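[agent] plan:
  1. take the single chain provided in the ticket
  2. run structure prediction with default settings
  3. attach structure tokens to the ticket
  4. add a short note for the reviewer (M.T.)
[agent] executing step 1
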Amino acid sequence: VTREGTEVMVVSMGKGRVTIGGKVQDVAQGSVVLLPPGVPHRIDADTRLEFTVSVAPAWQASDMQVLPDKP
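[agent] step 2 finished; step 3 output follows
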């Protein structure tokens, strides 16, 4: 979760799923995904998954919160 930064994920290779706030979305090469601030998200790969993430405002470690996996 980013507290303030809006993230945009662009998938360049592979297949997988992105869960954003409990909603699951399939992703593959060419997918573009908006990850809004304050909304928990998770990325799961079905194959080797390569992607780029851009963040605005610029990413800072203090803006990120890593949540534990649910059992």
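[agent] step 4 note for reviewer: DSSP finds no helices and six strands in the chain.
[agent] ticket updated
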